[in-house]
Amino acid sequence: MATKPLQAVVLPTPVPPASANGVANGERAGGGDTRTVIIVHGPGQEGIVSVFADVLGKPFRLATSFRSVADTGHGTVIGLRADDAKVDIHERDRSRIVAIHAHCVNLGMPPDAELSSECDYEFLYAEKPFFRRDLARFISFTLGQINHHEALITKPRTYFISTTFPDVRTALPNLDILTVGSDAVELRVDLLKEPLSDGTFSSVPSISYVGEQVMLLRQRTELPIIFTTRCTKENGKFPMENPQLFYEYLYRAVQWGVEYIDVEIWLPEEIRRSLYEKRGNSKIISAFHDFSGAFRWPSERAQEIFRDSRRYGDIVKMITVINDVSENYELEYFRSQIRANNPSGPALSAVNMGRLGQISRAFNTVFSPITHPLLPIVAAPGQMSAAEINSSLATMSQLPRKTIFAITSRPSAQTAFFEKCFNELGLTHRLSAVDRGPKGNIESFCSQPDFGGAYLNPPIAAAQAYIPQLSDAARAIGAIDTITAHATAAGSQLIGDNAMWKGIRATLTRDFAPAAYRGRAAIVVASSADDASTAVFALRSLNVGTIYTVGFRAGESAPGAAGLWQGSEAFTGVESVQRVEMPVVVVSALPPSRSHLVQPLLRHFGAWPGARRVAGKESGSGRIFVDLASGPRKGDPRVVAESCGWTCYGVADTGAFATVEVLRLLVGQNVPYSFVRLASGRSLS
């Protein structure tokens, strides 16, 4: 692929963009990029435009040129044929238009080089199987509606696993278990081996081949991807004599919507600066490696490298080889200096390689690279698995053994699953499954000296004297389903939290962008405000419009009455239902015995003109139904909803996402949603 030569001009060090406060971390979804979205598509691929529109919750239309869009496209997704787009793509107003090249790999690879280069972003997809959640993740990230980095940078520890396979297809069958404990997945582009027609392999994989690899990886994991092109001098295979080659691949990764871009600091400054300025919502990992054995942490050179790296990096990574185990403690002193002198960041990820440096991998808390026994090779000497690091921390008394309680009122699959996760992660914590029992039992569990936290099903009321601190979510919802214990100078402090609302929100944004909900009506059906409050909080975080309630009234005594129910309206009869606009989502929080009562509502709105989806196509209406009932029921409302064209989710979806959040709260480790579903095989309610 040809790219324009970079101009070696001197520019001031750019300032990172303001946080998008994305749905991944903040309790309110950010508005993101508000420019008009134009989808440039191939011949016969007009259907992809309607899918983009449906994911974004917007109408769509087709156009014949960028000029014809002008101001009439605001709020509408525009489709433009590739041949038409090439006529005036260079003249488009970038301040008002974001151009996305949507290329179907079934039409052949590589995509049109001119469109790949000129469009702001590029989405590669296959017709069969088509992964809608891949598109939802891509468009949500590139338009700034989700922000993985905000959530990860606040975690006490983060890890990433490096896929060292020559073809990611080899990793896909085991990816769910490979990524347990990981917060991101690194794609080592330089280790990919593209087969050629003569039976050999390309010395450097083509951008076309790499693009397909990114597509395949993103289709199978919800974790952020780290895009790495390691050079020959730094234990990789990309040639150092061609820095422009690095730029072409790294900038294309930005266009593909890859979350993290690893940029080596030996690259010319103009390349590093250009990537930093054009990174969009991607984050730059500014990487330094030294394999000479002569590098010293207590040196001015180490400080200079950090200062140089931070200029064009959101995370600074420094990796070295050492000669003596004492150098690990020199690294820790260096790390403490960096933290003290740079309180506003960027974060430092620093480890020493080899067996002598393994202890530094346990001390490092920012994006520690890990391996897994199922990987063909380790990405670097001395790499450890998440279980090995946790075991080392436990040995050094940095990860004390605690008792985690699963407090339920009936047998649950959650207990066995938590134990499986603890074993996979190498955690020494003891899991104790106990019956909720009479009033006062929970307080007695929390007062035990080795109490490490608790999961509660069903939740308890937020007003508990023995839980002095509440998260904003638990306070607003009025319910606690997770109790965490935090060590302080005065002893252990208990914090009550609510994980289920994030499970509901993650479900709602799996196949739809947060923007699909903004300002649009929603309906919540429940027997009481207590039952509905978690769903309402999740909907509020997505900035929905009016929330209509069915089956209950939210009074002054309702949970979060001060703000949670503000602007909600109760349906009082058939007439009030008929006056309501088409809702984007209906959430049923009815118990299993009454879950069938939502069916008339689903049929009513399913019969709206233009609301039903045509088989195989997307209308752009975006109608979602979430059923939170768990257990035997009288009729399944999801069957009715699906027959009326609704996109349906159940408690298995919300429960799995909530489990991810519960584990993060209790043990600070990430267990991917895909692994939760794989391991459970059924609802984790």
How would you describe the overall organization of this protein?
With 685 residues, the chain is of the alpha/beta class. The protein folds into four domains: 36-142, Rossmann fold; 158-395, Aldolase class I (TIM Barrel, Alpha-Beta Barrel); 403-498, Leucine Dehydrogenase, chain A, domain 1 (Rossmann fold), CATH 3.40.50.10860; 502-649, NAD(P)-binding Rossmann-like Domain (Rossmann fold), CATH 3.40.50.720. It is 31% helix and 20% strand. It has a nine-stranded parallel beta sheet with strand order 12-11-10-9-8-7-6-13-14. The chain has a six-stranded mixed beta sheet with strand order 16-15-17-19-20-18. Strands 23-22-21-24-25-26 form a six-stranded parallel beta sheet, with helices on both faces. Helix 9 (269-277) links the parallel strand 9 (260-264) and strand 10. The chain is globular and about 75 Å long. The two termini are 50 Å apart. Mean pLDDT is 89; it is low at 1-26 and 610-620.
